[in-house]
Design brief:
Elements lengths: L11 H9 L2 H11 L5 H8 L3 H13 L3 E7 L4 E6 L1 H4 L2 H13 L46 H7 L1 H9 L6
Antiparallel strand pairs: 1-2
Length: about 170
């Protein structure tokens, strides 16, 4: 089944999903950010089929999230290293980690995030300007300067309030 493209939606979430929305992508990036670089490491860690891994690595290189570097001439072998753009996804992967661990009993956690001293980290999403965590604010999406008419209508605060007070359909 061919999936729809999110290229022209105008939403940054949709645009990001265009590049990283396939679930293997974030798992490969998680491993790359954790220092794994070689095809056989990704294949072993993830249990992914070689043909699927080849396609995912190719798309990550094309998206500028990984860089392919040859490390051996005979036979030719390459490794896949996170680019700056790929490393910028670290907060996304850490947020998914934190959300996933939040819903698991502490004794059942298979993976922890720790600092250089080995102390467990409890990550939060913080607004750079105010220092507030996302949970302390009433964050919402609003239309930006380049929003399409349909996106601006969807995000219009007055229409949003109207939709919330509408009676449910009785069909």
């Amino acid at each position: 089944m061919q999936r729809s493209s999110f290229d022209n939606v105008g939403c940054p979430v949709a645009g990001a999903l265009e590049q990283v929305g396939e679930w293997w992508t974030l798992l490969i990036l998680r491993d790359a950010l954790d220092g794994f670089t070689r095809f056989d490491e990704f294949e072993r860690n993830l249990g992914i089929a070689p043909n699927m891994l080849t396609r995912r690595l190719k798309s990550l290189v094309e998206a500028g999230l990984l860089e392919r570097r040859q490390y051996q001439d005979h036979p030719p072998r390459s490794e896949y290293v996170s680019t700056r753009r790929g490393r910028e996804l670290t907060p996304v992967i850490v947020a998914l980690y934190a959300w996933g661990n939040k819903h698991v009993d502490p004794d059942d956690r298979g993976m922890l995030l720790v600092d250089d001293a080995g102390e467990e980290i409890d990550p939060v999403f913080v607004d750079r300007r105010t220092g507030r965590t996302l949970g302390e604010s009433n964050a919402r999406f609003v239309a930006g300067p380049a929003a399409s008419e349909s996106l601006a209508r969807r995000l219009d605060p007055d229409l949003r309030a109207e939709r919330r007070t509408r009676q449910p359909s009785t069909r």
